[in-house]
Design brief:
There is one protein chain. By secondary structure, the chain is of the alpha+beta class. It has a single domain (25-120), classed as Immunoglobulin-like. It contains 1 helix and 8 strands. The chain has a 4-stranded antiparallel sheet with strand order 1-3-6-5, with no helix packed on it. A 4-stranded mixed sheet has the order 2-8-7-4, with no helix packed on it. A hairpin with a 6-residue loop joins strand 5 (77-78) and strand 6 (85-89). 17% of the residues are buried.
């Protein structure tokens, strides 16, 4: 009887760890402009592809200039309904360094955030 309970407990623990491993977090996969890139012309928007779907109502992309002022149009949204792609538009950016900060809530409700820089020549 004790052996059966021990095996049942072990099976429950294994299933619990497997379920935790299956739930992932949304991380930056790639972006446009590319992370660390130097672009010749101001982009019209910043696009970020994530490793899994995100909830746009609880997610945001912000673009800051070198003085720390937010310069995006504050209109983060999905790109053409794609669950793992967010976009924010920007006005014409003068030459300089820009920092992109992102905060997302994945469809599995996990929160992640990060940032990267790009330069306009």
């Amino acid at each position: 009887m004790f052996a059966i309970k021990r095996h049942l407990l072990a099976a429950i623990l294994v299933a619990s760890f497997a379920a935790q491993a299956a739930s992932a977090h949304a991380f930056l996969d790639h972006a446009q402009p590319r992370v660390g890139s130097h672009v010749k012309v101001s982009p019209q928007r910043v696009i970020i592809w994530f490793t899994e779907g995100v909830e746009p109502l609880f997610s945001r992309i912000q673009v800051f200039n070198s003085a720390g002022k937010e310069v995006d149009n504050k209109n983060t949204h999905r790109l053409h309904g794609k669950k793992a792609v967010l976009v924010v538009t920007v006005p014409t950016l003068p030459p300089g360094r820009y920092k992109v900060v992102w905060h997302v809530v994945a469809e599995d409700t996990h929160k992640t955030h990060g940032d990267f820089k790009f330069w306009v020549k």
